[in-house]
From TrEMBL:
<dbReference type="GO" id="GO:0008643">
    <property type="term" value="P:carbohydrate transport"/>
</dbReference>
<feature type="transmembrane region" description="Helical">
    <location>
        <begin position="409"/>
        <end position="435"/>
    </location>
</feature>
<feature type="transmembrane region" description="Helical">
    <location>
        <begin position="298"/>
        <end position="316"/>
    </location>
</feature>
<feature type="transmembrane region" description="Helical">
    <location>
        <begin position="225"/>
        <end position="246"/>
    </location>
</feature>
<keyword id="KW-0472">Membrane</keyword>
<feature type="transmembrane region" description="Helical">
    <location>
        <begin position="85"/>
        <end position="104"/>
    </location>
</feature>
<keyword id="KW-0812">Transmembrane</keyword>
<protein>
    <submittedName>
        <fullName>MFS transporter</fullName>
    </submittedName>
</protein>
<feature type="transmembrane region" description="Helical">
    <location>
        <begin position="183"/>
        <end position="204"/>
    </location>
</feature>
<feature type="transmembrane region" description="Helical">
    <location>
        <begin position="363"/>
        <end position="389"/>
    </location>
</feature>
<dbReference type="Pfam" id="PF13347">
    <property type="entry name" value="MFS_2"/>
</dbReference>
<feature type="transmembrane region" description="Helical">
    <location>
        <begin position="156"/>
        <end position="177"/>
    </location>
</feature>
<dbReference type="InterPro" id="IPR039672">
    <property type="entry name" value="MFS_2"/>
</dbReference>
<dbReference type="InterPro" id="IPR036259">
    <property type="entry name" value="MFS_trans_sf"/>
</dbReference>
<feature type="transmembrane region" description="Helical">
    <location>
        <begin position="266"/>
        <end position="286"/>
    </location>
</feature>
<dbReference type="GO" id="GO:0015293">
    <property type="term" value="F:symporter activity"/>
</dbReference>
<feature type="transmembrane region" description="Helical">
    <location>
        <begin position="110"/>
        <end position="135"/>
    </location>
</feature>
Length: 461
């Protein structure tokens, strides 16, 4: 049994191994987040409407499969525990799916659409097999609130390091290769990194052995009981909206950089790199602030900085590359709070649920968070594609250069770059006002749980 669960501090080796698990998947996820929508419309030659449809269908599939994976991982019994066996088996599927997303097949129109849809579905299937058990693994490693914050900080530290590595790789390859070959090689390297980092995490961590005498069932009564957990229902909105903003901002940014600021596509990588390096550095600020000021206050502060950065972005004019770097730094600083705070709230709601029901349902809870996030993200990306298509945006024909976009498309890009992230963050901030768990409440919850476990142990003896 993990030493942390017996009252000792979680060892550094386990903390680092847990965090390292997200390095390769984040290399893949960041490349996908920044370049994939742009790739589909400007290199592969799909219309924004079809590209948006691919992201809608694949993310809806991802949302539905999260619930299944969450429940099955809660029920799983193996010598590897409940979570790591899923992570181990999903690694090659995730790596292969990511590689296939960047290949340019000799297809056109609907055949091309079907190929990328199939590759996206394969990738999302592998991603859920990893992400749901990986996110739930936190509470199987430690029950201490401060260590939840530390594990999530290390996770997103490695996550951002993976994002930065992907951007540096793309930047280096851009000096020697054209964009299609650059992304194809990035896909191959990212696929290998996925497998290596997930295997390293599985090898370096040890799960708590949790009894599964009362397996979770997916039915209306169970769902009503789960949704009766008020902190969790509020966290669903906080998490889904803030993480939609976190992922949709880089997806829109390439369009803003190329078409509104009239910069070369090579500027995309360097600007996003500045944003994510700042996010990584800011983790060393937001972790202690969340412990000293409270998670809610730290999240409010970070989100306010981010929203200010989006306002500044809206007013940038063509050619203002140095101001763009400054705005990217401000946005990255605010994003850091979103990486740290909402994920570290989940263990609190799981403890609250255990005190209320007597069950530990980490996988189910994390899968529901991911379900709602995936649905909202899918709708946001689909809306982005439809907004661009309705504005007259012209996709690039493969083999030709960039097309001069009409004024209506430029206005639409500027509007959506501002509106989608800001509205999502404002909604997330409004929900934090109603979140009822603070440090004192969680300490009382864990104390009562410990007392209950001691009493149960004594009764067995």
């Amino acid at each position: 049994m993990n030493s942390s669960l017996n009252g000792d501090r979680l060892c550094l080796r386990t903390q680092i191994a847990y965090g390292a698990g997200d390095f390769g998947p984040s290399m893949a996820g960041n490349t996908l987040m920044v370049f994939f929508f742009f790739f589909l419309t400007t290199i592969a030659g799909l219309s924004p409407a079809l590209a948006g449809s691919i992201l809608l269908v694949s993310n809806i599939w991802s949302a539905l499969s999260t619930i299944v994976v969450g429940i099955l991982s809660d029920r799983t019994q193996s010598r590897w525990g409940r979570r790591r066996v899923w992570m181990f088996c999903s690694a090659p599927i995730l790596g292969l799916g990511f590689f296939l997303l960047w290949w340019l097949p000799p297809f056109q129109d609907w055949a091309l659409f079907c190929y990328y849809l199939g590759a996206a579905l394969l990738f999302q299937t592998g991603a859920n097999g990893f992400l749901i058990p990986y996110g739930a693994l936190v509470t199987d490693l430690s029950e201490k609130n401060n260590e939840h914050v530390r594990l999530n900080s290390l996770r997103f530290g490695f996550s951002l390091a993976g994002c930065i590595a992907a951007l540096l790789l793309a930047q280096g390859l851009s000096y020697y290769l054209d964009e299609p070959r650059q992304l194809w090689i990035t896909g191959a390297i990212g696929g290998v990194a996925i497998v290596v980092s997930i295997f390293a995490c599985c090898w370096g961590t040890t799960e708590q052995r949790v009894p599964t005498a009362n397996p979770v069932k997916l039915n209306w009564g169970e769902l009503k009981l789960l949704l009766g957990n008020q902190p969790f229902t509020i966290l669903m909105g906080i998490y889904a909206l803030s993480w939609m903003a976190l992922h949709i901002t880089p997806a829109i940014l390439p369009y803003f950089i190329v078409h509104c600021l009239e910069l070369d596509t090579s500027a995309i990588t360097s600007i996003v790199l500045v944003m994510q390096v700042t996010s990584l550095a800011s983790l060393f600020i937001w972790e202690p602030l969340s412990q000293q000021l409270g998670k809610r206050t730290a999240f409010w502060l970070g989100s306010s900085i981010w929203i200010f950065g989006q306002f500044a972005l809206f007013y940038l004019q063509p050619g203002q590359i140095y101001l763009m770097y400054g705005v990217a730094s401000i946005i990255g600083l605010g994003m850091g709070a979103t990486y740290v705070v909402p994920p570290s709230m989940l263990p609190e709601t799981i403890d609250w649920d255990e005190l209320r029901t007597g069950q530990r349902r980490e996988g189910l809870y994390y899968s529901i968070l991911m379900f709602l996030y995936q649905v909202i993200l899918a709708l946001g990306l689909f809306f982005l594609g439809q907004w661009l298509a309705g504005s007259g945006f012209q996709e690039t024909i493969p083999g030709q250069g960039q097309i001069l976009q009409p004024h209506s498309a430029l206005v639409a890009i500027r509007q959506v770059s501002f509106a989608l992230p800001v509205l999502a963050m404002l909604g997330s901030l409004a929900l934090t006002y109603f979140y009822p768990i603070n440090s004192a409440v969680h300490q009382d919850t864990t104390f009562q749980l410990q007392q209950r476990r001691v009493a149960a142990s004594n009764s067995l003896n």
